[in-house]
């Protein structure tokens, strides 16, 4: 359990670091290339040791691949390393949950892309619009699907928390990236968060 609670946030943060190193140029590309094989090995091992973990992480991979998000050399290399290890060692996974979670992962990517493109449509003061932006911005379809699998006793509950940590580590790195881009203005944050944000400027 502790392995997954520790490894999932590392994977989430690492994936976003690599993504923004290439797409937004906010992080170091050389470092992104260096951490890629380590993340690939970690991800492959997390799939190898547990069928539920394999199901969840394969679903994440399916979502990003089907939406064409594997779009830089580091991601392509990392995916190949991961696949070679997984195919060599062999993994077990849950077929029906894999289909459900893969569909949820794709819908998360679609929803996230939609709110990014249509931000001007959503009114900041509208509670429903805030909920929609949060729900799709934080990719809650897949987490909801995992929670459903927890409720029906297919997935242990700690995987739901592991996925929460994965996503919020991803969101944290995105927050740092947006500060570096100037999208998030430090003077608009609360004093406590602003002091923390200054560390990444």
Throw out a few tags for this protein.
76% helix, single chain, mainly alpha, 201 residues
Give the radius of gyration: 17 Å
Q: What is the makeup of the main sheet?
A: none
How do the SSEs run, as a string of H and E?
HHHHHHHHH
Head-to-tail CA distance between termini: 35 Å
Compute the number of helices.
Answer: 9
Helix content: over 70%
Uncertain residue ranges: none
Number of domains: 1
The class by helix and strand makeup works out as mainly alpha
| Structure summary, number of beta strands | 0
> Which term fits the overall shape?
globular
Q: Approximately how much beta-strand content do the residues carry?
A: under 5%
Mean pLDDT: 86
Describe the protein in words.
- With 201 residues, the chain is mostly helical.
- It has one domain (2-200).
- 76% of the residues lie in helices and 0% in strands.
- The protein is built from 9 helices and no strands.
- Helix 3 runs parallel beside helix 5 (95-117) and helix 5 packs antiparallel against helix 7 (140-151).
- The termini are far apart.
Summarize the structure.
The chain has helices at residues 2-23, 29-48, 51-66, 73-89, 95-117, 127-137, 140-151, 157-181, 191-197. It is an all-alpha fold.
Strand and helix map with partners:
Layout: H1 2-23, H2 29-48, H3 51-66, H4 73-89, H5 95-117, H6 127-137, H7 140-151, H8 157-181, H9 191-197
């Amino acid at each position: 359990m502790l392995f997954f609670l520790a490894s999932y946030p590392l994977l989430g943060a690492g994936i976003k670091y690599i993504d923004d190193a290439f797409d937004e140029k906010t992080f170091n590309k050389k470092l992104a290339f260096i951490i890629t094989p380590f993340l690939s090995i970690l991800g492959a091992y997390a799939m190898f040791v547990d069928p539920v973990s394999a199901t969840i992480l394969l679903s994440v991979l399916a979502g990003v691949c089907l939406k064409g998000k594997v779009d830089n050399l580091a991601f392509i290399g990392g995916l190949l390393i991961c696949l070679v290890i997984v195919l060599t060692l062999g993994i077990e996974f849950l077929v029906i949950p894999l289909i459900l979670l893969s569909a949820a992962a794709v819908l998360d990517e679609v929803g996230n892309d939609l709110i990014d493109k249509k931000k001007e449509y959503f009114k900041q003061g509208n509670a429903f619009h805030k909920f929609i932006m949060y729900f799709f911005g934080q990719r809650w379809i897949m987490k909801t699907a995992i929670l459903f699998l927890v409720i029906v006793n297919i997935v242990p509950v700690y995987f739901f928390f592991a996925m929460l940590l994965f996503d919020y580590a991803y969101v944290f790195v995105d927050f740092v990236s947006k500060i570096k881009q100037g999208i998030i203005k430090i003077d608009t944050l609360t004093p406590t968060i602003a002091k923390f944000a200054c560390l990444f400027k």
